[in-house]
Amino acid sequence: MTFDELKTLLVSLGLDPADITPDSTREEAGLDSLLLTELALVLRKERGVPVPEEELYAATTVAAIEGLVSRYAGVA
User: Fold this and answer.
1) What is the separation, in whole angstroms, between the first and last Cα of the chain?
2) Which helix H or strand E contains 41, and what residues bound it?
3) Residue limits of the Carrier domain (predicted)?
């Protein structure tokens, strides 16, 4: 998944596109624990990408989340 694809997905979950950059922390982007859980569900059910929630919580930046998603997308 590219950064732009992830950004589009995050915006569809209600985040402000201006806050989402690769270097944004989860907090700067607006990704609280509820949105991370929702992101994990959307990735799993709609995209077939089984990213564990624990690993999403451990990712500190949007770029790190992108890397996780990309890594698990190859496994799905």
Assistant:
1) 12
2) helix 33-47
3) 1-73
Q: Which residues pair with 61 in a beta bridge?
A: 25
Q: Which residues contact 50 (CB under 8 A, 6 or more apart)?
A: 43, 44, 72, 75, 76
Residue with tokens 């698990």: 72
Q: Yes or no: say if 42 and 56 are a contact pair by the CB < 8 Å rule.
A: no
pLDDT in tens, 9-39: 999 999 999 999 999 999 999 999 999 999 9
Domains of the chain (ranges plus CATH)? Answer: 3-73 (1.10.1200.10)
